[in-house]
Amino acid sequence: MNKGNLLCSTCDHLKKFGLEVMRENCLNCCSRDEGESAIKRYPKARLEVCTCKFGAYPQIQAFVQSERPAKFPNLTIRYIRGLDPIIKLMDASGNVQEVLAIEKWDTDAVEEFLNTHLESVEKEDYLRTNHV
């Protein structure tokens, strides 16, 4: 593969194949994705919703009750009485930076959004597993 053709977003897919040890090298020689700098990424996110509203938002219910949230260790789910579904994007200290209404989103849209806007925690996990 030509170095110029390797997009940095491709490096994030190495973990799926058990090749996360190659990620750092991949990031050293990849080309930045077009528009990559325009996308702001956040260390934490929280999805807030009321379980009483699951009937009105079955796609949000499907996301929350599936295995998908487990893919995002820096995502928390909070149940707040009477609240329509929202996602809060936060800085490392937990201060809310953005709030988005997600009542019209489907499960794939929620997952894609989190993949795009949540920082990866792979580096931190890798360091924890390599204590001497």
TrEMBL record:
Domain Selenoprotein F/M: start-end pairs: 44-118
InterPro entries for the chain:
Sep15/SelM_sf (IPR038219), Sep15_SelM (IPR039992), Sep15_SelM_dom (IPR014912), Thioredoxin-like_sf (IPR036249)
Report the subcellular localization.
Endoplasmic reticulum lumen
Q: Which Gene Ontology biological process is one annotated for this entry?
A: 'de novo' post-translational protein folding
* Name by which UniProt lists this protein: Selenoprotein F
Keyword rRNA-binding assigned: no
Mention any one GO cellular component term assigned to this protein in its UniProt record.
endoplasmic reticulum lumen
Pfam families attached to this UniProt entry: Sep15_SelM
What is the organism of origin for this protein? Ranatra chinensis
What keywords are annotated for this sequence in UniProt?
Endoplasmic reticulum, Selenocysteine, Signal
Family of this protein: Belongs to the selenoprotein M/F family.
- Signal keyword on record: yes
